[in-house]
Design brief:
Radius of gyration: 12 Å
Strand order of the largest sheet: 2-5-4-1-3
Order of helices and strands: EEEHEE
Strand content: 35-45%
Oligomer: single chain
């Protein structure tokens, strides 16, 4: 995971299962508009669709970037 300060007492920032819409899987962070948070790992895996560039992952966030955008940090891909 990129260098991110993790606050264990935070109720807003957490690891979450998600689907990330991206044609390339080489980035370390993704804007909120590209991330669909899922209820479970199974939901994330079931929603995966390589044809539509939807990839299951574990993300951390949302956090506010220096550009004032809400972003999620990639923890790892589930594929």
């Amino acid at each position: 995971m990129p260098h991110v300060i993790v606050d264990p007492e935070s109720t807003a920032l957490a690891e979450r299962w998600a689907l990330i819409k991206t044609p390339r899987k080489n980035r370390k962070r993704y804007p909120e508009a590209c991330v669909q948070v899922c209820e479970s790992e199974a939901d994330a895996r079931e929603g995966a669709d390589a044809q539509r560039n939807l990839h299951p992952a574990i993300v951390y966030g949302p956090s506010v970037s220096s550009e004032s955008q809400r972003i999620y940090y990639l923890v790892r891909w589930l594929e």
